[in-house]
TrEMBL record:
<dbReference type="GO" id="GO:0046677">
    <property type="term" value="P:response to antibiotic"/>
</dbReference>
<feature type="transmembrane region" description="Helical">
    <location>
        <begin position="220"/>
        <end position="241"/>
    </location>
</feature>
<protein>
    <recommendedName>
        <fullName>Undecaprenyl-diphosphatase</fullName>
        <ecNumber>3.6.1.27</ecNumber>
    </recommendedName>
</protein>
<feature type="transmembrane region" description="Helical">
    <location>
        <begin position="41"/>
        <end position="60"/>
    </location>
</feature>
<keyword id="KW-0812">Transmembrane</keyword>
<keyword id="KW-1133">Transmembrane helix</keyword>
<dbReference type="GO" id="GO:0050380">
    <property type="term" value="F:undecaprenyl-diphosphatase activity"/>
</dbReference>
<keyword id="KW-0046">Antibiotic resistance</keyword>
<dbReference type="GO" id="GO:0005886">
    <property type="term" value="C:plasma membrane"/>
</dbReference>
<feature type="transmembrane region" description="Helical">
    <location>
        <begin position="188"/>
        <end position="208"/>
    </location>
</feature>
<feature type="transmembrane region" description="Helical">
    <location>
        <begin position="253"/>
        <end position="269"/>
    </location>
</feature>
<comment type="function">
    <text>Catalyzes the dephosphorylation of undecaprenyl diphosphate (UPP). Confers resistance to bacitracin.</text>
</comment>
<keyword id="KW-0961">Cell wall biogenesis/degradation</keyword>
<dbReference type="GO" id="GO:0009252">
    <property type="term" value="P:peptidoglycan biosynthetic process"/>
</dbReference>
<feature type="transmembrane region" description="Helical">
    <location>
        <begin position="115"/>
        <end position="136"/>
    </location>
</feature>
<dbReference type="GO" id="GO:0071555">
    <property type="term" value="P:cell wall organization"/>
</dbReference>
<keyword id="KW-0133">Cell shape</keyword>
């Protein structure tokens, strides 16, 4: 497999699997096992993950701009209107929900990667992800953005922290928790992907520079750029598709996939 094809495939896998609840990190582990190859390292994963972040920001750009403007008017123009306060509260709850995964990632991230990073773990956790998605497949909440509470944010943040384990989907874990808490599908989806923003941005700031200081990066600039573009494009396509799936209430199909993929991994790769 050529370097160009290898990096492109990694970007495509990251991009397609990041938004949907089937675990992007788990699929990278499976890819590594199937082809008996070593991934380029954590900094590369952070790099293509950052491409996914930019795609999420593109899809939700109107919401992002609105939240930024609401925060600006709240801080500097003393705007306390109901609409502004809903947005400011939403931002505050996102920050609260970011803390569990951020703290646990810093404290136990390396240990999780070493002890739970194997392909067997991915097989079992994919099955668990499928069960969780099946459980909430028919749920319809009644709480919108303004109805999300501090307790909800903490619990969703803890769910995101669980997704540090490969095979546990970050989007799946946060959406499942949000829907269990009675949050509407649209708001659950939006909160989940806005929660992705600080986590991805933080890891890029902390770990991304190591990719550019690596002497091998200069020779791999072309393949890295192609992987970045592939991840961006596929994330945007996959997220739009997932929004459609959520609107139609067809999460059960992701359950089927996770069960089949997890079982195949356990039987043939573990």
């Amino acid at each position: 497999m050529t370097v160009w094809l290898f990096y492109t495939l990694l970007g495509l896998i990251q991009g397609f699997t990041e938004p949907i609840p089937i675990s992007s990190s788990g699929h990278l582990v499976i890819f590594q096992e199937l082809f008996n190859i070593d991934l380029p390292g954590l900094s590369f994963e952070v790099f293509v993950n950052f491409a996914s972040l930019l795609a999420v920001l593109t899809i939700y750009r109107q919401d992002v701009v609105r939240l930024i403007m609401s925060l600006w008017t709240f801080l500097f123009k003393k705007d306390r209107s109901d609409e502004t306060m809903v947005d400011v509260k939403f931002i505050g709850l996102l920050l609260v929900a970011t803390v569990p995964a951020g703290v646990l990632g810093v404290l136990f991230g390396d240990w999780i990667g070493e002890v739970l990073g194997g392909v067997a773990t991915v097989g079992y956790t994919l099955i668990i992800t499928g069960l969780a998605l099946w459980f909430i497949r028919n749920m319809r909440g009644n709480k919108g953005d303004g109805g999300i509470t501090l307790r909800d944010a903490v619990l969703i943040g803890l769910a995101q922290a669980v997704a540090l384990i490969p095979g546990i989907s970050r989007s799946g874990a946060t959406i499942v928790m949000a829907m269990l808490l009675g949050i509407k599908q649209e708001s659950a989806l939006r909160f989940s992907f806005f929660l992705f923003i600080p986590i991805s941005l933080g890891t890029m700031i902390l770990d991304g520079p190591t990719l550019f200081t690596n002497p091998d990066t200069r020779d791999l600039f072309g393949p890295l750029l192609l992987a970045f573009i592939a991840s961006y494009v596929l994330t945007a396509i996959s997220l739009k598709w997932f929004q459609h799936i959520m609107a139609k209430g067809e999460l059960k199909y992701f359950s089927y996939y996770c069960w089949i993929a997890g079982l195949l991994v356990v039987l043939f790769l573990a």
